[in-house]
Amino acid sequence: MFKRYWQKSIEYMNIEPDPGSATQENYAALRMIMVVSLISCILLMIMQQSLLGHVSYGTIAGVVGILFLLAFCVFNWSDVRSRITIALEVIILLFLIMAAFVEYSLHFETPIYMFLLLLVLLPSMIFDRPWRIVIIILAAAIFALIFNHMSIDDDIQKQNLIRILSGTLLSLIFSCRTAYRRIVAVKINQMTQDVAEHDPLTGVLNRGGGVMMIRNCIDRQESGTFIIIDIDDFKHVNDNYGHQRGDEVLQRLAHTLRTNFKEKDIVMRMGGDEFIVYAIGMVDYSVTCTRLEQLVNTIHRIPVSEEDKKYLTVSIGAVINDGSYPTYDSLYNAADNYLYRTKMKGKDGYNLLSVSYR
Question: What are phi and psi of 202, to 5 degrees?
Fold first, then answer.
């Protein structure tokens, strides 16, 4: 039983967040922390000056520290952005150390609570594996204990010691649980979205997911070749060999398309026996012709009926988009027109348009 709980704990602490989601979440958290902390310190300075007639050394030290971190992020933004998760973790740790120093080293007469509040809240904003958050919390707690030891009042030391230990325990439980639940929620959302955007039979993108991704490429003026692939006489396959064989042919064609194009290229099943590929960055005419010829020859090796020695053929209409096509519909209509030309010439081949949109 102990071994099982230990394995579950290891899995719990090592759950891996999605890199893209981690970058987005941690970037937003870093920006919010810097803005809110700077505004809070400025407001605190104004309030202290108005009500007390002076600004405390702790507040001044806090503002100086925040301005230093903000300047560091601005002047090293490219490095910070490329390592946003590590940058957020380091900055949060520095914030906690600075808060502990200000509260336990510069104020000796009364117990302090601001560090404990930050210790619970700030680590919970990190979108990363829980064990890394644990290290940050424990490191901040160790610094707080060191600074607390500098206090000249033994009673204050003891009170703060109890608060630091209890606050650390609360932060560990709250932050790790929050991180785990956020990671799981993102994974579930991605799985749900993946199911909604993919064709259940072939595994490639369905019409909704594929069209959305191609529209995004067009909006970014991302060049590439738009390809419509239509199976020749697919109704004959279903009528003569059964729908199960027809499904197998669709699955093999989808697999062939995935393996013959790059991972970044968009492959989708438009519906029925029609597939669409958007080959990102493929704009050279001769290269595109070679790739389409290779694709047609590869598809010829997909068996429809090995007993009858019948193999698959397709008709293809393709358009090279140099970034000038304004909409998905304009690309689709152009490619569909060239698909029609292929069928008029006897099917089993391709026609390619390489003219900019007019």
Answer: -100, -20
Q: Over the stretch 287-315, which tens digit does the pLDDT of each residue have? A: 999 999 999 999 999 998 877 778 899 99
Average pLDDT over the chain, rounded to whole? 86
Do residue 137 and residue 176 come from a single domain? yes
Looking at per-residue pLDDT, the higher value among 106 and 302 belongs to 302
Per the DSSP assignment, residues forming a β-bridge with 280 are: 224
How many structural domains are present in the chain? 2
| Domain final position from 196, 218, 236 | 196
pTM above 0.70?
A: no
Q: What is the dihedral of CA 20, 26, 29, 30, to 10 degrees?
A: -130
Strand runs (DSSP E) across 113-253, as ranges? 224-231
Lowest mean pLDDT among 56-70, 211-225, 271-285: 56-70
Q: How far apart are the first and last CA of the chain?
A: 71
Rg over CA atoms, the chain: 31
For residue 183, tell me if it sits in a domain: yes
Assigned domain for 358 exists: no
Q: Look at the block and give the residue holding tokens 């230093």.
A: 68
Q: Which of 170, 45, 151, 44 is nearest to 103 (CA)?
A: 151
- Residue 60 confidence (pLDDT) above 80: no
Distance CA 184, CA 305 (A): 45
For residue 278, give the H/E element and its range. Answer: strand 274-280
**pLDDT at residue number 33:** 85
Which residues touch 120 (CB under 8 Å, ≥6 apart)?
167, 170, 171, 174, 175
Look at residue 76 and give its three-state secondary structure.
coil
Range of the domain at 279: 207-353
